Automatic annotation (TrEMBL):
<keyword id="KW-0732">Signal</keyword>
<dbReference type="InterPro" id="IPR032710">
    <property type="entry name" value="NTF2-like_dom_sf"/>
</dbReference>
<feature type="domain" description="DUF4440">
    <location>
        <begin position="79"/>
        <end position="187"/>
    </location>
</feature>
<feature type="signal peptide">
    <location>
        <begin position="1"/>
        <end position="29"/>
    </location>
</feature>
<feature type="compositionally biased region" description="Low complexity">
    <location>
        <begin position="63"/>
        <end position="74"/>
    </location>
</feature>
<dbReference type="InterPro" id="IPR027843">
    <property type="entry name" value="DUF4440"/>
</dbReference>
<dbReference type="Pfam" id="PF14534">
    <property type="entry name" value="DUF4440"/>
</dbReference>
<feature type="compositionally biased region" description="Low complexity">
    <location>
        <begin position="38"/>
        <end position="54"/>
    </location>
</feature>
<protein>
    <submittedName>
        <fullName>DUF4440 domain-containing protein</fullName>
    </submittedName>
</protein>
<feature type="region of interest" description="Disordered">
    <location>
        <begin position="38"/>
        <end position="76"/>
    </location>
</feature>
Length: 342
C-alpha cells in the first residue's frame, strides 16, 4: 500500500483514479400476479390459542408448531395458493370469489383513512364499488415471507401494486393474517402502508457520471484496468481495479464515491488489497476535481495527498498527484498521466 499511495506515478494512479465494487441488493421475494386495495396485508390481532382453538390452560409446549416456527412445505404452498386465488379473483372482478376468501369476521384496515371494514357484508360493498366498472384497477403482489404462528395461523408479508392504467399505479406494503378453517386458509386481518421512497443522491453525484465505464492506464511495465458503475438507486459510484504486469506490486481494490448528507459534500472511501485504506473529500474546480485524501497504510503509516482529475474529452482524463506527505516527510509531486476509456 505504501508503494501504491506514495510511489511512482504509474502505481499511484491506481489509488486515485481507480477501484470500486457495485453494491447490490437481493430480493428473495416470490411474485404472483396481484392483490387488492385490501391486498393481503395486516397486523394480527388474533392470538395463537384463539385461532388454533386451543384451551388457554393448555401449555404452549403442546402446540404442534411453536410460534414463529416453520411449517411443512404443504402448508406454505396452501397459503401461497390462497394468495394467488385472491389475486385472480380481484383481476377477474369476481366479488363473490373475493368475499369467499375472507373469514366471516375479516377486517381490512384502510391505509389512507385508518377506517376498518369489518365482516363480509362491509367488504362486499367496498369491492362492489371498486370493481363495478370497466375502469377497475388490476393488482399484482409479491410475497416476501410467510410465518406460521401456529398450525392454523399464518402471517404473510409482501408488497402490492394497484394499477389503474398504463400511467397510474400505487404501491403498498402489506401484512395479512390467514387462519385455517377446515381445509381452507382464509384472510382474517389485512393492513397496508404506503411505500416510502428514499431520496437518491444522484443529483449530487451526476457531475461525476463521466467516470462511469471501463478505463485503462498502460505504463511501461504494468497495466491498470478498472471499471466504474452506479450502485442500486444511484446513491454511490463504485470503482473496481486490478494492477498487473509488475511482479511484487500487483494489487486490486475498490473505491466507493458518495454524497455525505451530514457534511453536505462528496466523499470517497478506498480499500486496497494489501490492507490499507484512503478516505477523501471531492471538491469541484474550474477544470475538474480536486480530491483531498488521507491514507492509512497497512503497516500503520499515515499520509496525505491531493489529486487533480481533469476530463480531456469523453474518452480520457488527466490525473496528477501533488502535496504528498508520508509520515511527516514531504514528497515530490508526480507528473500528470492520461487515463483512457477502453
Amino acid at each position: 500500500m505504501r508503494q501504491y499511495v506514495f510511489g511512482t506515478a504509474a502505481i499511484t494512479i491506481v489509488m486515485l483514479a481507480l477501484s470500486g465494487s457495485l453494491l447490490r441488493t437481493c430480493s428473495f421475494a416470490q411474485e404472483v400476479p396481484a392483490a387488492s386495495t385490501a391486498a393481503p396485508a395486516a397486523e394480527t390481532q388474533a392470538s395463537e390459542t384463539e385461532a388454533a382453538g386451543e384451551s388457554s390452560d393448555e401449555p404452549a409446549s403442546t402446540a404442534e408448531s411453536p410460534a414463529g416456527s416453520s411449517a411443512p412445505d404443504s402448508a406454505d404452498a396452501e397459503v401461497r395458493q390462497a394468495v394467488e386465488a385472491y389475486v385472480n379473483a380481484f383481476n377477474a372482478r369476481d366479488v363473490d370469489a373475493l368475499i369467499a376468501l375472507w373469514s366471516p369476521e375479516g377486517v381490512y384496515s384502510s391505509r389512507t383513512s385508518g377506517d376498518q371494514l369489518v365482516g363480509r357484508d362491509a367488504l362486499r360493498q367496498d369491492f362492489s364499488d371498486l370493481l363495478s366498472d370497466e375502469g377497475a384497477p388490476t393488482l399484482a403482489v409479491i410475497t416476501d415471507s410467510i410465518e406460521f404462528i401456529s398450525p392454523s395461523v399464518a402471517i404473510e408479508r409482501g408488497s402490492a401494486t394497484i394499477r389503474w392504467n398504463e400511467e397510474s399505479a400505487e404501491q403498498t406494503t402489506y401484512t395479512a393474517v390467514y387462519i385455517k378453517q377446515g381445509e381452507t386458509w382464509l384472510l382474517d386481518r389485512v393492513t397496508e402502508a404506503d411505500v416510502v421512497e428514499q431520496p437518491s443522491h444522484y443529483e449530487h453525484l451526476k457531475s461525476l457520471e463521466w467516470l462511469v465505464g471501463d478505463w485503462i492506464y498502460e505504463g511501461e511495465t504494468w497495466t491498470v484496468e478498472f471499471e466504474t458503475d452506479w450502485t442500486v438507486k444511484q446513491n454511490f459510484l463504485s470503482r473496481r481495479y486490478t494492477v498487473t504486469g509488475n511482479p511484487g506490486n500487483e494489487s486490486s481494490g475498490l473505491q466507493i464515491i458518495g454524497w455525505d448528507p451530514l457534511k453536505q459534500q462528496i466523499r470517497s472511501w478506498l480499500f486496497d488489497s494489501d490492507g490499507g485504506y484512503v478516505h477523501a473529500t471531492w471538491l469541484p474546480t474550474e477544470s475538474g476535481w480536486s480530491v483531498q485524501s488521507v491514507a492509512t497504510l497497512a503497516d500503520g503509516g499515515r499520509g496525505s495527498f491531493t489529486s487533480h482529475l481533469e476530463p480531456i474529452d469523453e474518452n480520457s482524463y488527466r490525473w496528477e498527484k501533488v502535496n504528498r506527505v508520508l509520515d511527516g516527510q514531504i514528497l515530490p509531486s508526480l507528473d500528470p498521466v492520461t487515463v483512457r476509456r477502453k
